[in-house]
Structure formats: structure tokens, C-alpha cells
Amino acid sequence: MAAWILNFGDKPYFSHTAIKVMTAMKMILRWFPHGDDSVTLAQIRQIPCVTGVATCLPGVPVGEVWPLAMLRALRDEIHAAGLEMEVIESVNVHEDIKKGLPTRNQYIEQYNQTLRNLAAVGVKCLCYNFMPVMDWTRSELAHPLEDGSTVLSYRHEAVLRMNPAAIGDALLGDARGYSMPGWEPERLGAMQEDMRFYQNVSRETYWANLQYFLDAVVPVAEEAGIFMGIHPDDPPWPLYGLPKVITSAENIQTFLALHDSPNNGLTLCTGSLGANAANDIPAICRTFAGRMPFAHVRNIRRHAPRDFDESAHPSACGDFDMYAIMKALYEGGFDGYIRPDHGRMIWGEKARPGYGLYDRALGAAYLLGLWEAIGKR
Ligand SMILES: [Mn+2]
């Protein structure tokens, strides 16, 4: 990394259990293997100062062990392109674990074996989520902005008018043939039944199911040297009567206390948490930077309390003060992995919605520019 990415060895941390992932922040990009991405590793390698990718094995059914041979092949492909594979996003948590069913134990065992396999190929950070039924929700994947680009957008009334299966069908129809993580066809089939199940699950029970999972996997993550970062709920408000957990600073504090370990952390997602204007993102960064192994940084434009469009990364293009966010990360001692999150679809690019090359490359350069300037003040 360039010399201006400073060592944080002398910076104060959030608590005695604060993580020490690396000596410096690393900029990465999300990338989908096996031909499921229009963006190539060679293209990512040419974005200045991007050192690696956050990736996954999309072919493995949720709950199964990620095979070591497939992970080795994936790592070798990424290394051959001159990039690192230190971050996995995501290993999905089987619904039986989230539901607290007796069958959860076998899926937790398999999750733990996946953690060991990830460590064996040099993975240091794992992003996952604990959202019931759906990973994320939007009403549109190609909403036009005034500049002629398209973005993912969310309109609360439109989402309420659709049932989750209809949203899934609509998103897959808009996805240009790419897989939509969290909206896998096999998941859509079970959606109605899952929805009914959760109507009788209290928030307290759901939190307890999360703690059961953490108590079983975090010790294995500690042994394996993997920093786990839970992704916030997207959007961060109740939907269809489903329990939500990671939606606010208060809930993040509760989550970290469920299993207090440096290996039990948060993936910051500014766009997810920030969709609720009550969430003060710079304050969240300042408070929890020491427990964030991974950060997704993007901007959004709100039109109503529960309506928003994703936007280009710069502060002027959306509602967030990106300088304040990056400064809070910097001053909080953030030393994990960071990536521009979704981007607009620009310049005629035909890519997986939200994951084109061009606008994410612009986002990475912008975030790196802010980071350099903050470090040189
Ligand atoms: Mn995110």
C-alpha cells in the first residue's frame, strides 16, 4: 500500500476488545466468480490502490460446507490476477439457524467447517447477515436519475403493495440474467412458508437465536483468525412483520455485547443504516470503528422518510457527508477492509445491477482521495 495510508498503531480504540485486523485500511471491490460478473479481475486490478476482492462461492447451497478444493481454485484465480482474497461476502446463514429449529446444530457445524476452510485459503474477514427470509429489498433495480444513469431504488409503498415473492420475481427479471445474492430461486420457493413462520417469532426470540449462533461460531472464528462482520438490515425498518436486528447504534451495541470478542464485529454499511435519517452515520463510525473489520461506503438520496434512491458516492450527490464519514472512520482507528458499495449504471455499461465497474471505480478513487486528504491534514 502507498505510504500515505497510515499505521494506526498509536490510535485509541473503542474498547479493550477492539480488533486489530491490519496495520492499514485496504480498498477492495466485490466480485462474483464463475462467469456471474461482467467485471473482470484484470479490470479491478487496474483501479488504483485496489488490492483485492470480496467474493463468494455462489454455487454452494446455503448451509453446506464450502469445499476446500473450490476455495483453493478461486484463491489461485484471484492471486493469478494480482489481487488478494482476504474477504468473503457472504456465507449465508441457513434459515433453520435464524428460526432456532433443532436442525440448526448441524448447519452451525457446517458453518464452522466453512470458517476453517476459509482460514486455510487465507481469508481474514467474513461478511454475513442475519436478516430473516430476505437479504435486502428494493422496489426497482434500474431507476433512472436525471443524469441518465440508473440506480437501485426503494419506495416503501410500492414494496408494501408487493409480496416478497413478487419482489423476488421482479428483481430477478430486472437482473439481466445475473444471480441476485439473497434472492436465489430456491429461497423464493420457501418464502411464503418462512414469512408465516416468522409472524410468531418475537424480537427477543430472534435475538436469542442470533446469540446461539454467535456463541457457537465466534470461538471457531477466533481460532481460525477470521474477523466476522454482520451486515446491517437493509432497509433498517420493519417490513412484513419480520424481526429486524441490526438497524441502529443501540442495536449494534446490543449485538456486540451478545458475544464480546474482537472476532465478533460489524460490517458498516452506510447506505443500509443511513436509509433511516435517525441514524447518525459518522457517530456510528466513531463509536464502533474499532469493531468494524469491513465497511461498505456509499451514498443515497432520500425523497421521503422511507423512500430513497442510491446515488453516486460524492457528498454532493446524496444526503451523506462522506468526508465526515471517512474522517470518523479514520479517527476511530478503522484498519479493516473497505469497498465502494453499489454504483450507478453509467456510460452504457451492461452489468449486474449495482455492481458495474465504472461508477464503483469512481467511488473507490473518491474514497481513497478523501482518506489521503484526511491523513495529510
Ligand atoms: Mn452493504
Description:
The chain has 13 helices and 12 strands. With 377 residues, the protein is α/β, with parallel strands linked by helices. The chain has a single domain, classed as Alpha-Beta Barrel (TIM Barrel), CATH 3.20.20. It has an 8-stranded parallel barrel. Strand 5 and strand 6 form a beta hairpin. It is globular, with a radius of gyration of 19 Å. The N terminus is likely disordered. The protein binds manganese (II) ion. The site of manganese (II) ion has 5 residues, from loops. Manganese (II) ion (MN) binds next to loops.
List the helices and strands and how they pair.
Layout lengths: L25 E5 L10 H5 L4 E6 L12 H13 L3 E6 L5 H5 L4 H17 L4 E5 L10 E5 L5 E6 H6 L2 H10 L11 H14 L4 H22 L2 E5 L17 H10 L5 E6 H5 L6 H8 L5 E4 L1 E6 L2 E5 L10 H10 L5 E4 L17 H19 L1
Parallel strand pairs: 1-2, 1-12, 2-3, 3-4, 4-7, 7-8, 8-9, 9-12
Antiparallel strand pairs: 5-6, 6-11, 10-11
Helix pairs in contact: 4-8, 6-7, 11-12, 12-13
Bound molecules: manganese (II) ion (MN).
Manganese (II) ion binds next to loops.
